[in-house]
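User: Okay, second chain of the day. Same drill as before: sequence in, structure tokens out.
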Amino acid sequence: MTAVEPLREGLRKKARENLDLARLLLGRGSVDAAAGRFYYAVLQASIHALRRQGRTPSDFRKGAREWDHGMVERSIHLVRGLRGDEVLFTSLREQRERADYEDDPVDRRKLEFLRHEAVRFVEEVTA
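Assistant: Same drill. Structure tokens below.
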């Protein structure tokens, strides 16, 4: 096992844990908190999958050593080969930012709509 392997498995585990928490929080009516957990589940699953493909942050920005949110947003389509994953990520990011920085709460209907694709994405890329 290389030094990178524990990182890959660590993010895989975190993504699945955040997904479980998101579902629990949404079920309890904590929509804003759930929005953040769904977003981070998809972010962490994406990084896990990109690393598994042998990709590094410097593949996307010269000299980069750490993944950032924009970098993942621009490269998420490489994970499953689906351009729709960019829409999912952007939409979840918007909901998470609304939950964190705006007075109005996240619209539960919007999050429920995104939930199904987020679950499918995380479960597929962390299997």
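The chain has one domain: 4-125.

User: Thanks, on to the next one.
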